[in-house]
Amino acid sequence: MVGSDDRSAQAAAPPGGGDPSRSPHRQGSASNETARRLAMLRDMARIRAFEHEAVAAMRSGQAPGVVHPSIGQEGVAVGVCANLRRADRITSTHRGHGHAIAKGADARAMMLELHGRAGGSCGGKGGSMHIADFAVGMLGANGVVGAGIPIACGAAQAIRLRRAVRSAEAAARLAGGQRNREPAGAEEDDAIVACFFGDGAVNRGPFLEGMNWAALYRLPVLFVCEDNGFAAFTRNSAVTAGGGPAVRAEACGVPAIAVDGEDALAVDAVAAELVARIRGGAGPQFLHARCYRWEGHTGTDAAAYRPAEEAAAARDRDCIRRLAAALATAGVAAEEIAAIEAEAAEEMASHRAAAMAAPWPDPGAAFSDVQDAGAPA
Amino acid sequence: MVGSDDRSAQAAAPPGGGDPSRSPHRQGSASNETARRLAMLRDMARIRAFEHEAVAAMRSGQAPGVVHPSIGQEGVAVGVCANLRRADRITSTHRGHGHAIAKGADARAMMLELHGRAGGSCGGKGGSMHIADFAVGMLGANGVVGAGIPIACGAAQAIRLRRAVRSAEAAARLAGGQRNREPAGAEEDDAIVACFFGDGAVNRGPFLEGMNWAALYRLPVLFVCEDNGFAAFTRNSAVTAGGGPAVRAEACGVPAIAVDGEDALAVDAVAAELVARIRGGAGPQFLHARCYRWEGHTGTDAAAYRPAEEAAAARDRDCIRRLAAALATAGVAAEEIAAIEAEAAEEMASHRAAAMAAPWPDPGAAFSDVQDAGAPA
Amino acid sequence: MTRMSFAEAARTALAEEMRRDPLVWALGEDLAQGGIFGQYKGLAEEFGPDRIVSTPISESAIMGAGLGAALCGTRPVIEMRIADFTLCAMDELVSQIAKVRYMFGGQGRAALVVRMPQGMWRNSAAQHSQCLEAWLTHIPGLVVAAPGTPADAAGLLKAAIRSDDPVVLMEPKNLWTAEGEVPEAVEPVALGVARQVAQGDAATVVTWSACVPVVEQGARDSGVACDVFDLRSLWPWDEAAVIASARRTGRLLVVHEAVTVSGFGAEVVARVVEALGPGGLRAVERLGAPRAPVPFSPPLEDAMRMTPARVVQAIRRVASARH
Amino acid sequence: MTRMSFAEAARTALAEEMRRDPLVWALGEDLAQGGIFGQYKGLAEEFGPDRIVSTPISESAIMGAGLGAALCGTRPVIEMRIADFTLCAMDELVSQIAKVRYMFGGQGRAALVVRMPQGMWRNSAAQHSQCLEAWLTHIPGLVVAAPGTPADAAGLLKAAIRSDDPVVLMEPKNLWTAEGEVPEAVEPVALGVARQVAQGDAATVVTWSACVPVVEQGARDSGVACDVFDLRSLWPWDEAAVIASARRTGRLLVVHEAVTVSGFGAEVVARVVEALGPGGLRAVERLGAPRAPVPFSPPLEDAMRMTPARVVQAIRRVASARH
Ligand SMILES: Cc1ncc(C[n+]2csc(CCOP(=O)(O)OP(=O)(O)O)c2C)c(N)n1
Ligand SMILES: Cc1ncc(C[n+]2csc(CCOP(=O)(O)OP(=O)(O)O)c2C)c(N)n1
Ligand SMILES: [Mg+2]
Ligand SMILES: [Mg+2]
């Protein structure tokens, strides 16, 4: 279903290019390919370990508020972000830990954020549902379903406007006008925006408005629908008519393709192709990734509204084990894989310990960063 | 593109059945068919005459506020409403005079409303953009683009719920619970809702939400997109990506069909088929009617943003002249047609005179019908 | 009287109304699963999927369809999940529901209920903690109610369902599990009538919603004998009772969870001052949240929270102020 | 000084800002056609379709895209056509734009402008006549400005564009064609600073937006010498100037077009009463619209309209009230 466009055929810059440990180059040689896949595995393991800690912290009451785990869906976040660079931006959802980690966000700061501590990604003011890490182009989780879609469109529009301004040699202006923390290399000319959202979001108006908008202005946006089958406590197919997310996107002029989101390598391959098209100027592309939410809607939802066998079957399809198996086939030793997972678990456990030990934010933080003019006394 | 559905194949009740002068029966016999078409012509002529008066009244300052004429689009309103009954409901738009008249609204009251006079459809409180006539199932024009779409969905849901309640022999409850003015025969079991909106509305979120909703609950709604090519001062194709209204509707599971909206008989034929399907339980259907807005966006917009030839060509395709020609071919005398048009012109001129002579509303009306509890002093 | 939770009282009231009138129905996300606070638990089983309608995440359609359904003679209860999400359906609420009766000259009425649980709850942060009742009191056509006890959760819901006006019912998220005495046979609570919680001559204290138990506690702790009112309805609100009390005490304190600036407390203060003249009062104070979003971290969130201790101080300030 | 219309002043200011900073751009419906009040006339020709972006009828996307674009370092001017349509984009404004800086701990800022012309204009009826400024003053994170003269239309727009805060600019629909003196070189108007329109000891009169000329006229006609303030900014607002004046005059009148109940006048009154104590004032009054939608018919609409005559009466009442 991927729309074909002449301009998209021309090979774009190779993926990777940010922090090499995050987004390894893929250059065809078997060992590089393996290194890339190992890096993907590492991030997937890190996301899972992060969320195991996060869920435990929520259940024990150590992390206040609500945590929405993406356990089982890691292949989508990592498969997509493996094709992004630091300068690229992402928008995320209430279920955004995976997107953030895959984009290179500081996991320790994220864990502190979940615990509401000083040093958290947002200084403790956002929590799990509002994690952002602008330094790596992560423009924020969002507590409103679908709200990231128009934001991603505007981000892409800004990237293009700034490119035009630079090419008009007015770049000098940028220094003064620049206010936000920005990822390194934010001025790369072919930066794109990846916009993650769930299958529930396709029933909200901003989905339509954003698809039309991106197609109309031919914006560099990769839309990623993580279709885990549920919207909160409701099976999404029970409230969604028609042919589904991809068909709706295509109806608005955004070419779409479906992928098995539990196969990280498949996601990686398709995302690579779509990202190349977008960098090449083909306009927005849509990736419909089917997956499954292993846990409940939140860390404390027992998900009694679905058959246990269904969740068990999804666990059997584990995207991490699948990638590990592919690596084993490619000759990676079981010990190496185990070490990666152990390291991930250790990293996140230590982040959690750090979070528990971290101080609370300064009370004055409650009143800072509201606004300059008319700030609260 | 009309979706096929077994249940829709069974012939539904014949159209017509309301005020016979509005919605004549079509029963196959040539003379009845001609009578029906003459009635359609009469309503189209009445709409045009109404709007000529309305535009003149706006230009002269006699009608305050803004009038949005649908001149040139009469075939859509009449072609659709010829297939509706009193008990059916419609929702309309800012450009809604035609829908109202075609559904049998009181044209004199409408003209008074446009002039803000006592006796107007809404007592002078609504004006052109908010004309409603609940007695004939006209649930209101709307000043917000696309806003009628979810309202139509809910109206259809209510029709179904009330049918269920009746069949559960709880109908006795209705008398007490019934608050709104309702069309005669409002309790017909297979009543439907026709929802009119413009091509501009397909870029608003409620369009998506409403299409999904109607398809999901399989509601008896006929969506009618009057595609006149413009959204205010912008050519709508310049701001709309993808395959257009029908494709978007189908993506949400609403079967769609396109029709030449300047051919009233074609609209009538397709609408008959779709309405029959809906009454038969096939769920929502979508009619994409291409037409052209002869006048500017409002009665005073010169429409300088489009080539004069384009508008002139549309005038040459005049839906009224086309229907008149078909009638002539069927043997109707030119005098009869001219008489219908003259009568229409006379009727609306007299309404306008009546409006100018009518008193202003009682000043207290400004404070009535706000709410019961907490009404303004 | 039975002791039950706020959610249980509300659930029971809705079930009773749905049994009484087959044209009452509810629509919103996850309703078949009982709603996120359990306030719809078991109703889908009793009333079926056509009267307890689980919807897509389509706030505009939920609100707009509710209106359409009201215009065709049914009585929908529109569930917004939390008040913040009403921001996704504001046109439908404010430009459609609130205006339809007036705009159409009384031909149609939006006899419906919009439920929007609001306020801080379990560190939900900025996008899930807003109190927007002041907004809705500003909109002609809307009735606004905000229960603060289980009994009123039931009684106001019944009144809202039976009202021919559109009634916005703002339940305090933080009180769904709170328990209280509820009559066996709940009667509708008259819209616009406050509940006097305590009596005293030292000051007039006005509050509503989640602050009701906080203010009750604070008033007790203060040791100052005040008239304390739980407004219950914000539009119409019980001006007569509050003005009569303030005339007697000469001192007025309004306490709410919402941001103070342009909160409904401003309206209460302005109205009372207009009615009595400034000379009729000796002290006036509003106690609400700072003009800042609600932060996530518990100690930061606490800075925004209304507490009995803050109420105690304010009552003492107001009761002792000299001018 | 040059005499020009409100629309012309605003248009010129935007053009100047766009020339000054290539990262300033505007998006909204029909902008390439000059906007519905001519306030964008000719800009598409000068700046091209990537900086004067004509959009689909997609209010959520217009508002949300503006935010995304601000987060990536550009300075969008978001045009809502009329304030009523902002109701279709309230989540984006209130839960996204207003909160993004705070929620993300200062990492990103929504340095953008949201223009929403508001109020009654040419009998546009209930859905096209609303004044919702009070709502936005209630929302932490937003700056709210409401020019009442051509010079301020230009100066506040420049200030809004240069501000790093999100600024909501509510232009009075009814004044687009009104003329006034505008400096050759317009400087940004400091946000939060009122403009004193007249001086006098008999009362303090506060107003803004479309009521500015009405109150100027009414104050003249009343023959009573008052301090008259055009607030210009509603958040922050010039509390210092108003409170100082009210302390002197002891009498406060607030006049606005919006519905009185829970309008911004309530905030002004409550704040001044809190600051001075009720004993510091002798008379207080709010003058606004009845709590009813705006009707279409001219004589009915007139019942909602602020007029110099109503202002005259109110000034006399306030200036002469005894308590
Ligand atoms: C506009 C809006 N409506 C409702 C909610 C409550 N809510 C939070 S997550 C969620 C389900 C979202 O489903 P989906 O988009 O599929 O994402 P998933 O949770 O499956 O990742 C809902 C209904 C919300 N956050 N925003
Ligand atoms: C939500 C909203 N945005 C903008 C407007 C202003 N507006 C009124 S009519 C119109 C154009 C509508 O175009 P279309 O839907 O094609 O209907 P047409 O006018 O062509 O009949 C616009 C933008 C509005 N009324 N509502
Ligand atoms: Mg999902
Ligand atoms: Mg159109």
Short characterization:
Chain A is 43% helix and 8% strand. Chain A has 377 residues and is an alpha/beta fold.
Describe this structure in words.
The complex is a heterotetramer, with two copies of chain A (377 residues) and two copies of chain C (323 residues). By secondary structure, chain A is of the alpha/beta class. Chain A has a single domain, classed as Thiamin diphosphate (ThDP)-binding fold, Pyr/PP domains (Rossmann fold), CATH 3.40.50. In chain A, 43% of the residues lie in helices and 8% in strands. Chain A contains 13 helices and seven strands. In chain A, the strands form two sheets. A five-stranded parallel β-sheet of chain A has the order 1-2-3-7-6, with helices on both faces. In chain A, helix 8 links the parallel strand 2 and strand 3. Chain A is globular, with a radius of gyration of 20 Å. The N terminus of chain A is likely disordered. In chain C, strand 2, helix 2 and strand 3 form a beta-alpha-beta unit. Chain C has two domains: 181 residues, Rossmann fold (3-Layer(aba) Sandwich); 126 residues, Rossmann fold (3-Layer(aba) Sandwich), CATH 3.40.50. Chain C has 323 residues and is of the alpha/beta class. Chain C has twelve helices and 14 strands. In chain C, helix 3 runs parallel beside helix 4, helix 8 crosses helix 12 and helix 9 packs across helix 10. In chain C, the strands form three sheets. A seven-stranded mixed β-sheet of chain C has the order 3-2-4-5-7-6-12, sandwiched between helices. At the A-D interface, helix 6, helix 7 and helix 8 of A face helix 3, helix 4 and helix 5 of D. The complex binds thiamine diphosphate (2 copies) and magnesium ion (MG) (2 copies). Chains C, D: Pfam families: Transket_pyr (PF02779), Transketolase_C (PF02780). Chains C, D: It comes from Neoroseomonas eburnea.
